[in-house]
Amino acid sequence: MSSGVAVNLEDIWIRFGDFVAVRDANVNINGGDFFSFLGPSGCGKTTILRAVSGFLDPSEGRVLIGGKDMAGIGPNKRPTALIFQNLALFPLMKVWENISFSMEVAGIGAKERRKRADELLDMIALEGQGDKLPSELSGGQKQRVAIARALCANPDVLLLDEPLSALDLKLRQHMRTELREIQKRVGITFIYITHDQGEALTMSDNVAVMKAGVIDQIDSGHNIYDHPATPFVASFVGENNVFRGKIKSINGNEAIVSTNRSGDLLSRIAPAQLGNLNVGDDAMMFIRPEVLKLGPAEESSKSTISADVMNEEFEGNTFSVFLEGDGGKSIKMSVPNAGQDHISSRGENLSLHYDPSNAVVMPAGELASE
Amino acid sequence: MKSDSLIRIALGAYLLIFFSYLLGPLVVMSLTAFNSSSFPSVSPWACFTFEWFDVLFNDRHIREGIYYSIIIGIGTVILSVSMGLAASIVLTQVWPRLRSTYYTMIIAPILIPGVVLGISTLVFWDRLGGFLGATEGSVLHGLFHNGLFLTILGQSSFIASYAMLVFVARLQRFDTGLTEAALDLGATHTQAFRKILLPFMRPAIASAAVLAFLASFENYNTTTFTIIDYKTLTTVLAQKVRLGINPSISSLAFIIIVLTIFAALTLEATQSHKRRREAVAQGRMKPAGKSILPSFMRGNIAAIICVLLAFVVIFMVTTAQSYSPEMCKAEVREARQLEIQERIEALNAARAEREATEEPTSTVTDEQAPASSGAFGGVFDPGNLSTDTAEPEAETTAPAGGSGAFGNAFDPGNLETED
Ligand SMILES: Nc1ncnc2c1ncn2[C@@H]1O[C@H](COP(=O)(O)OP(=O)(O)OP(=O)(O)O)[C@@H](O)[C@H]1O
Ligand SMILES: [Mg+2]
Question: A134 CB less than 6 Å from ligand 1?
């Protein structure tokens, strides 16, 4: 097994005619990492992957794999293997021929190919199914065959384009763990594309969040969730309550935001935006639903929001409470299910408290549309 | 309710008419191959015979025509399938705005009359030879004036367009991602073409090849100009029609029809077998139960018919070896002669009666029955009806021994004039 190799994208621009699909992307992926690109549909994830695998040349910038500039090197010469969004298994070849295709084109004899294919079939728990046609497999099995086929080529970098998007929830969760295990076992670099944030957060060492061709933030899943760098990331990854307003005062890494409808609120400044906020700026403050806590109604401070309960939904592990603050501001709070019958009753006025270090404020910007 | 059944009856009748229109001529033609009558006909039925197959197989021109037709067919298949495939692949690669122009250009040969293609092929290669300085007797000159060479090129010029249409239809369903996947796994472009695209195109290549072969085999318009000193089946047949045909052509038609049915049934049988096997493999269908039939034929009507047809053909061929229609033919001949004899006698009697009242002149003397196969041909010649019947003596007294000898005997006009 080959070990992981670093991948670097330097100032990548990709244009289709006048349309800019990728804008000035700079990404450094360590060897052996599980790296994800996360972003809504059409934001340019596949395009970046195609530039790495060599199916298109960036209009500007360089792709380095293992420190080597890949300009002018075709997809069949790069040490990458791509698992396509639609898998692209060869429909006329048997499963084992699919898996060992990379060996076939390298001129390796059928016996050896069969042996290797059987080994890989064992690994993906499909032993004895090598003589089937892809059309005779289930979705999850096809998935695993596609992975085995890519691994058979002994790539230094495995590129996966939303490989789990076609699967049902249970299978998807199962395949997530399986993929992660495979990655640990073979130790090669995985570049994974998804628009499913859960997938990105659970599997990846690092995540790049993309929006319309621009990479907004590259960080660990944990940091992406807890310390979003832009309003887009804050609203795209996980759920968030957004409070718009202006910066009233700044004190170290904390600021008081004079919100449009909910009064003055205290919040931590996003680390990535520390120098970028000044008093009087338009700002957005984010508080996650699970950060909000119930408190005594009479207490009022710069970390309290008063709101009326509109609705409550039971979601199994949590209760989601939908509230309406002053001026019709809608707020969501989630409370862990600890065996209560319900959290609140409709029309009840609640005082919501939060720890200012769990809220985050940053310059106003574009939000992810639902 | 009533109108419903009415519609159904009308539909049935329509289908009946449609299929008789479609298949009737083929059935009639096949039957004429087995009638000993020397002009292709079904009624009156003379004798059941296989002799026309003998005549066919002993006809050197037809044999040579078939031989060259097959050679040209193979050449055309190779040339037009490869040109069509290349053209269709270019169509998918070419700049989108050029695509419709390119498409029109490529299918234009289909719209051009075959005659024009034939003449222009002839002229083009002749001029090209002249331009290249090929002198009479040189290899190049020989090639550019070779009937086989020119016919293959001339036919391919439009058959390649048919092939391309077949390929384009298939290519539209090709997932270019498969080629990319192959490249990504380290295949060269040639390998990706050979191992991915070509296998995908195989069914289309097979259909295009069959289509090209049939189109080449039956082509006359272009071939007649480009064939020069060679001959194909179509040009031989065309010549024969000009000189008068006999049922050996029907027997050729019969063979072609049987081969076609056979091929169609075999194809259907294998495909139905494959579908069945897939269905069983995917658990959509239970494997066929125990049966005396071999597994291939179970639940496969096409296969059963195919095997039955094979038996019928084998049976026909073996009986053809031993069966001789001579007895029947002799009988028919005798019966005919008898009948003719009677007619003549009746005529004579009538004449004698007349002559008895008037003045005796000539008598019909011919009673000879020529043995040649064309003996009764003229009987059915509609031309006879319009022959001058005022002087039956002149004709009947000058028998040629060949066809038409007894023509007038049956001419209704004859009888009338005698009254
Ligand atoms: N060959 C092309 N020509 C023109 N525009 C293209 C081409 N390929 C992609 N685009 C555009 O680039 C943008 C990004 O496409 P891309 O396929 O990378 O999206 P994606 O992030 O993979 O989306 P999804 O999650 O739906 O797969 C899209 O707006 C798309 O229309
Ligand atoms: Mg995509």
Answer: no
Residues B235 and B251 in one domain: no
C-alpha A37/C-alpha A194 separation (Å) is 6
pLDDT value at position B398? Answer: 39
| A280 Cβ closer than 6 Å to some ligand 1 atom | no
Task: Examine the domain organization and report whether B176 and B206 are in the same domain.
Answer: yes
Structure tokens at A81: 């293997």
CA A61–ligand 2 middle distance (angstroms) = 21
Residues B381 and B405 sit within 8 Å (Cβ to Cβ):
no
What separation in Å is there between the alpha carbon of A130 and the centre of ligand 1? 34
Query: Structural domain of residue B313, as residue ranges?
Result: 25-49+247-285+296-352
Let me know if residue B379 belongs to a domain.
no
- Which of B324, B352, B380 finishes a domain? B352
Does the residue B372 lie in any domain?
no
Cα–Cα nearest to A197, from A83, A370, A39, A367: A39
| Whether residue B97 is found in the same domain as residue B221 | yes
Write the residue with the smallest CA distance to atom 12 of ligand 1: A21
Number of domains in chain B: 2
The predicted-structure confidence for A311-324, as pLDDT tens digits, reads as follows 889 888 889 999 99
Chain B residues near residue A102 by CB distance under 8 angstroms: 185-186
Q: Is residue B306 situated within a structural domain?
A: yes
Res. A243 pLDDT band, cuts 50 70 90: very high
Does the CB atom of residue A43 touch ligand 1 within 6 A?
yes
Determine whether the shortest distance from the Cβ of A47 to ligand 1 is under 6 A: yes
Q: What angle do CA B169, B172, B178 make, to 5 degrees?
A: 130
Residue B163 included in any domain: yes
Higher-confidence position of B4 and A51: A51
Across the interface, whether the CB atoms of A53 and B184 are under 8 A apart is answered yes
**B231 and B85 within one domain:** yes
Query: Are residues B144 and B193 part of one domain?
Result: yes
B306, B323, B352 - which closes a domain: B352
Provide the 8-state DSSP code for B288. Answer: P
Nearest CB partner across the interface for B175, out of A80, A88, A106: A88
| Same domain, residue pair B121 and B233 | yes
Same domain assignment for residues B79 and B227: yes
d(C-alpha A335, C-alpha A325), whole Å: 18
Chain B environment of A86 (Cβ under 8 Å): 175, 177
> What residue of A is the nearest CA neighbor of B181?
A88
What pLDDT does residue B305 have? 84
Residues of A in contact with B199 (CB under 8 A): 92
Is there a contact between B177 and A86 if contact means CB atoms under 8 Å apart? Answer: yes
Q: Which residues of B touch A (CB under 8 A)?
A: 175, 177-178, 180-188, 191, 195-196, 199-200, 281-282
Ligand nearest to the CA of A44: 1
- N residues, chain B: 419
Q: What is the pLDDT of residues A183-232, one digit of tens each?
A: 888 889 999 999 888 888 888 999 999 999 999 999 999 999 999 999 99
Strand duo A34-38 + A189-194: pairing: parallel
Residue-averaged pLDDT of chain A: 89
Give the global pTM.
0.71
SS (H, E, C) A132-155: CCHHHCCHHHHHHHHHHHHHHCCC
**What's the ipTM?**
0.81
Q: How far apart are the first and last CA of chain B?
A: 61
Residue contact A106–B178, C-beta within 8 A: no
Q: Which residues pair with A35 in a beta bridge?
A: A191, A206
pLDDT tens, position by position, A328-370: 889 999 999 888 888 888 888 888 999 989 999 999 988 887 5
Phi, psi of B103 (to 5 degrees): -60, -50
Q: Which domains does chain A have, with CATH numbers?
A: 7-226 (3.40.50.300), 241-363 (2.40.50.140)
For testing the chain B interface, which of A85, A101, A147, A162 should be mutated: the one with the most B CBs within 10 Å? A101
- Tell me if A101 and B182 make a contact (CB, 8 A cut-off): yes
- Mark whether B104 and B126 lie in a shared domain: yes
